[in-house]
Amino acid sequence: MQFQISEELIKQVKHLIQTESDDNLRSMLNEIHFADVAEILGELSLSKATYLIKLLDSEKTSEALMELEEDFRERILENLSAKEIAEELEEMDSDDAADIVAELPDDRAEEVIAKIEDEKRAEDIKELLSYGEDTAGGLMAKELVKVKETWTVAGCVREMRQQAEKVTRVHSIYVVDKEGKLKGRLSLKDLLTAPAKAHISDVYIRKVDYVDVDTEGEEVARIMQKYDLEAIPVTDRDGILVGRVTIDDIVDFIKDEAEKDYQLAAGISQDVEADDSVWQLTRARLPWLILGLFGGLGSVFIMEGYEEALAQYKELFFFTPLIAAMAGNVGVQSSAIIVQGLANDVVKGSLFNRLIKEISLSLISGVTLGILVIIFGLLDGMELIFSFTIAVSMLFVIIVAALIGTFVPIILDKKGIDPAIATGPFITTSNDIFGIFLFFSIAKLILGF
Amino acid sequence: MQFQISEELIKQVKHLIQTESDDNLRSMLNEIHFADVAEILGELSLSKATYLIKLLDSEKTSEALMELEEDFRERILENLSAKEIAEELEEMDSDDAADIVAELPDDRAEEVIAKIEDEKRAEDIKELLSYGEDTAGGLMAKELVKVKETWTVAGCVREMRQQAEKVTRVHSIYVVDKEGKLKGRLSLKDLLTAPAKAHISDVYIRKVDYVDVDTEGEEVARIMQKYDLEAIPVTDRDGILVGRVTIDDIVDFIKDEAEKDYQLAAGISQDVEADDSVWQLTRARLPWLILGLFGGLGSVFIMEGYEEALAQYKELFFFTPLIAAMAGNVGVQSSAIIVQGLANDVVKGSLFNRLIKEISLSLISGVTLGILVIIFGLLDGMELIFSFTIAVSMLFVIIVAALIGTFVPIILDKKGIDPAIATGPFITTSNDIFGIFLFFSIAKLILGF
């Protein structure tokens, strides 16, 4: 049933813009959901997209603007006057408006805020900009429905009708005292079913989950998920109700966090997308490659140190990429599980038990892989003592790699550093060097070169 | 403000269970949110947790059960009678109840369903079980508020009060025709503000997003995110309204999908957690390690083929872990960006442009890294022609690795295979072999051995 943006439709829009058929464009696009308008804008050139934004009602375009890629939006905004941007902002929810202003250069941001006619709105935006980006204050919107505990249900319904006009979705009605301190909440359902003459103080729910403006975004997401909340009120440091965070912002937040972790694990250090410029992508990727290069050069050094074994045991050197790959793979597996476990708070029990578990795990995998190496050695015509040496060294490398993969994230986490940094290239690189060093040390011990 | 589960509290609960102080336990735990009760249960032994589940009201425990780890929940359910499970199910939302039944062994599931007193509820559960797990039908709940388009607003409010009792949260009121076909929706806000005598047909919104029971979960998530929906109605194949999917289920779905992708990228093939058994973890990890082992053995073969170069150019062999690491890292970076781009639908433009982009990217990175290798060579006392050879070969390896990392996921996606499989060990292993082969081929060409 979903609306599908066809190439046909895009062509038609482009044609209508070229012929400046404004009425046709308006009647055509006003029927369409803003998220679809955003998709259409994304398919147009900058000048055509700007043309459409200027043409259509701010009511529609303001929401569509929010859905666009940040880069594209910025370039469109560069083509709008401060007044035009201010008009878009007046139609947005306050949290979205603040996000847009935050993307503008400082002097332009001031100019835009000065052009906002609704003073309350301008103040709200300034307030929201004063909080940290990843805090409840930075995520919240100012729009909400609040009532005083002394009111009657009938008075409350009257007041609510008025306030609700400005609020896209009413999840809960918040109850405050004379000073504006958060006291509890009331569902619309409760309001519908309560007698009209009852006082709010008789019907409202006194238990209400809330966060304060300084609560970290991650913590807000955790609480909202744990308690299955669709909105959570936000108070200032004195308990005064100042805003609310809604679940759709949290959905975006969760997605962003997951994508960042995924990219970190793949060795990409900034939030980039497939369609970003070559320069942006290089900046995000090159540092990790340089780290990997130094790791590889470390291995070169180690092997130079064992050069004297080359004549008799050249096959050892053929196995180094295999050893490095095993150390890397095992390390990434262990660290990924621990990093995820730490994020979901399921890493329990003593460190000693975890040690035993990782060692058992690596023993099972290492012995299995070792047997396969010995079978390969027999088929390849290697001496048994030689393939045995490789299997045993590999077993030790796997155990140590698993321990590094497990305990580096745990230690980082205990020190308050994001353990997600310790997956991907970081763990593969350190395990590569360490694995190759261990491999040659053990081989030397057994073969005695 | 959040409730914090202290060790003190857990101790106290354990003590109260041991002394069978049922009244104290009830009065203490009835005050606590079900999500916190779930956390307490998770800290108890199986027998103590079962004791609490049997003691407390089903109203509280049914929701707490849903929050527990699946394994622990299964073991608790094994200790409950079919009748006791049926009682828990009667208190749950239908989608949660169906999920629980799906976890039970077949014969026990039938037994439990037979013990459910509410026949409508039993039927709902059976219906939900008939849909695929990852479809709208499998995600939806049967609870919703629906009204007929011929009713008046006043009649609708009356009916709604009755229906809403069974529905935890009312997002929208759905409007259906005589046959039950979905016609549109109405917000509670609209209902509050419409005149009592108006007919629903005069006030409802005819545009409503919906999915049908067979729509894939991923598509449901995409639509709900794109259009910022908090609930979406689900129809059967004839357009009859049969349920609704709410955003909290989608949040869980998004998180699960992100975790699966993350694990796939790390070479973990099943949904495992840090606290799963050694055996479960081995089953999820070992297959990827075996794949890596075969890749490593492939490199051994390739190097055996270049054995004659060993005497003169032994340093080439010292560089193989570095080449393998570069090929792997670049491949993982490229594939991660493409896999994420495909998931977010931002991979646009022609394949040729993408080719040019990846090649430019790898040229920049490859030349930078090559210069570093030459500098290292100078410091390490290598011949210039030799370090130059390594730098040039590495440049080619990086370009090819980036192309493999980019186009393998794109091809898989075009063929309808989940491109997420093509990150991590898969791309590192294939790039290892390919990189080492290419490295020696180019070195041979330049050095002529």
UniProtKB/TrEMBL annotation, chains A, B:
Entries under InterPro entries matching the protein: CBS_dom, CBS_dom_sf, Mg_transptr_MgtE_intracell_dom, MgtE_N_sf, MgtE_transporter, SLC41_membr_dom, SLC41_membr_dom_sf
Gene: mgtE
Entry function: Acts as a magnesium transporter.
Record keywords: CBS domain, Cell membrane, Magnesium, Membrane, Metal-binding, Transmembrane, Transmembrane helix, Transport
Subcellular location: Cell membrane; Membrane
Superkingdom of the source species: Bacteria
Membrane topology value: Multi-pass membrane protein
Domain CBS: 140-203, 204-260
Gene3D superfamilies: CBS-domain, MgtE N-terminal domain-like, SLC41 divalent cation transporters, integral membrane domain
GO cellular component, one term: plasma membrane
Family from the record: Belongs to the SLC41A transporter family.
Species this protein is from: Aquimarina algicola
UniProt GO MF annotations: magnesium ion transmembrane transporter activity; metal ion binding
A Pfam family that the UniProt record links to this protein: CBS
Protein's name in the database: Magnesium transporter MgtE
Transmembrane segments: 286-306, 318-339, 359-379, 385-412, 424-447
Subunit details: Homodimer.
